[in-house]
Amino acid sequence: MSGDGYEAVIGLECHVELATASKMFCACPTTFGGEPNTRTCPVCLGEPGSLPVTNRKAVEYTMLIGLAVGCEIAPRSLFHRKNYFYPDMPKNYQISQYDLPLCVRGALDVDVDGDRNRVGITRVHLEEDTGKTLHVGSTGRIHEAVYSLVDYNRAGIPLVEIVSEPDIRSPAEAQRYVSELRSILEALGVSDVRMEEGSMRCDANVSLRKPGEGLGTKVEIKNLNSIRSVGRALIFEIERQTNALRRGETLVQETRHFDESAGVTKTLRSKEEAFDYRYFPEPDLVPIEPDHAWIDRLRASLPELPAARRARLATEHGLTAEQAGIVGGSGASLAYFDAMLSAGVEPREAAVWMAGELARALNNAGVGIDEARIAPDALARLIALVRDDTINLNTAKKVFRDAFEAGADPVAMVAERNLAQVSDESAIAQVIAGVLEANASEVERYHAGEEKVFGFLMGQAMKALKGQGKPETVQRVLRESLGG
Q1: Where does 43-170 have alpha helices with state H?
Q2: Are 279 and 98 in contact (CB under 8 A)?
């Protein structure tokens, strides 16, 4: 709920490049990067006389996505030509699906702070991606460009569009929806879902209304390329619309662009400039009519999906919902967890470290767990040092942070820094004797009944031991040295 009692109504359109070896309608490779315009052919460049051929694997991947989010697979679907002119569209039309998509009527459950909401999915349809336009200038936006360049390497890559119902009510819920959808796509293996490379991107439709009223004026925000951007853009746009309504202004239906650096949305085009795409059936492609046997084979091949994975981890290992969410957040995180278990770490212990120190280190470094600078077996060996009292937990955490930043072996760092705990009670007693002698007045206060002074003396003893004394042993020897 936004200010002044307005309710946000949000729907998302997520575009996902499929990880097929070749493009949607030709044999050109789909690998990211490469010299501009080198991964093209007459088909994806739209040259006269070239004919498209549907990529069967792309169709299967699309149906897998539909099945994973509970969609019905349409008994018959068609490709259409979506007609418009733009330099990144070499044919001046895009082969897409219109009124007969491949997958319809699904849903995705989204949890935010313990509250579950079911977000309907209107359709999952298949199309081809466009090329990439680079606007050369100070801002990278077309209206301030000195000139523009077009790279058609991306043109024709299989692209799936997943369209939600307007069932989302907050930026946090929108982020969770995208995160859950991204996890599902990764689990299916149908895309690398690297948002920073554009293989998954989102458009958001948002409007405000008073609860119980009809839908308000819709604004579309284009090309959000990270989960963080989805949240930031929606927060700004909801506040912008709220302030406008508070001032008595009339909102206009428009398409807006999110400026990452400024954190604001800006007008891209108004409703009056909206395109008439003049869809008509693609005459060079036959309809797709999957039979029951094909659909059943795909359904049987579905892997364990993220929600089921989290539930299994919580049940099998007694993990909290937060721990299960982090451990089961991706295939890479689950592999890291399993590797720690294989190295002898208890499940709860592994989950605590992954949800705590490891998650913080990854977040601070801005990398995923597949780029973790400490391998799971190295972390397991560090945890073993805590378990056998070689080092205490606080020392282990500091070593982990330092080793992660340096990309070093944490166990080797413990040895290099001579951080092993002092366990010799006679050595500890000798250090404590020096502490008590140096703090005679505090000792007198303790003997006079000021129990709180014990904490100060304990801190001085640990400081003198350079943090290497086992706290339980130091505490006991200190009590004994004080006479009880």
Answers
A1: 56-68
A2: yes
Q: What is the mean pLDDT of residues 193-197?
A: 87
Strands, E assignment, 176-215: 200-209
Same domain, 477 and 384: no
Closest CA to 155 of 14, 42, 13: 42
- To which H or E segment does residue 435 belong? helix 425-438
**How deeply is 195 buried, as exposed, middle or buried, from its count of CB atoms within 10 A (0-12, 13-18, 19+)?**
buried
- Domain range enclosing 442: 425-482
Query: Residues 10, 106: one domain?
Result: yes
Residues 139 and 272 in one domain: yes
Distances (CA, A) of 380 to 100, 351, 388: 52, 12, 12
Tally of domains within the chain: 3
Alpha-carbon separation of residue 394 from 347, 373, 381, 397, 470 (angstroms): 20, 20, 16, 5, 11
d(CA 424, CA 373): 34
What's this model's pTM, rounded to 2 decimal places?
0.84
- 310 & 360 share domain: yes
Find where tokens 């982020």 sit.
175
- CB neighbourhood size of 277 (10 A): 15
CA end-to-end distance (rounded Å), the chain: 59
- Kindly report the length of the chain: 484
Amino acid at 476: R
Q: Which residues contact 348 (CB under 8 A, 6 or more apart)?
A: 317, 318, 319, 323
- CA-closest candidate to residue 127, choices 213, 219, 17: 17
Report the pLDDT value the prediction gives residue 268, as an integer from 0 to 100. Answer: 83
Q: What is the pLDDT of residues 422-474, one digit of tens each?
A: 766 788 888 889 989 899 898 888 888 888 889 999 889 888 887 777 788 88
Distance (Å, rounded) from C-alpha 238 to C-alpha 280?
36
Note whether 87 and 227 are same-domain residues.
yes
Q: Are 128 and 52 in contact (CB under 8 A)?
A: no
Residue 216 C-beta-side C-alpha neighbours within 13 Å? 24
- Enter the tokens of residue 15: 């575009």
At 159, which helix (H) or strand (E)?
Answer: strand 158-164
